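Hello,

Our lab assistant flagged a job as stuck in the queue for most of the afternoon. It eventually completed. Since we weren't sure the result was trustworthy after the delay, we are filing this so someone can double-check. Below is the sequence as submitted and the structure that was eventually returned. Let us know if re-running is recommended.
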Amino acid sequence: MAGNFAPYPRNGYGNVQTTYDASARNPVGICWGPPTPFPTTSVFSTTAGSSTAGLGAPPVYKYVYFYDANALTGTLQAAPAPVYWIDESFTTVTSNAANAYSTTGGASIAGYFMPNTTALGTSNTGAQWYAQVLQSYCWIQIGGFLAGAYAPTTQTGAGIGSVIYGSTTGSWASTVNTTLAASARALGVQWSAIASSACDVLVGGQGVFWGS
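-- returned structure --
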């Protein structure tokens, strides 16, 4: 693959939602698009909503460092949740929107942080898991279909097809509306109704995003 894509990343845990490396196992900032298994005819359908979800919109991930000097405590969410870039390197993210590189319109939105308490299990509390993953190297999703993402924390005219973008304050925060706010960058498009604080998202939709 060309550019900043890694064809064979090192993902020691075998699951982006449970991976947090104490030292970098890949070039930081590298992108990865896992190969999509060749589908059988059973996954296709001419009936809307009955085909395999996300089949034609495979995920794209980016390997980043998770750290925030101003928020050393927090709670990991039960689903992949929004994070923000802290500088112009596009390699380090924070869960706190107020500590992003730019808070104007949520312009520094980076993607969805993949480690979460549902995938990691109940051996630790959310706060304990946060302490575990802080200052480690993890995957964020920057493109493609994401089922069961942490729902937008601010909902104005929320619904399927509404655009999700960054917030100016809050932890794991994002905003959803029928239009994209001025100075904001799209995180994705809401692709299902919100239920139990989660919804499906077409990450990177509504304009150019792709982790930059």
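-- support follow-up --
The delay was a queue issue, not a problem with the job. The result is valid. The helical segments are 117-120, 126-133. The first strand starts at residue 31 and ends at 32.
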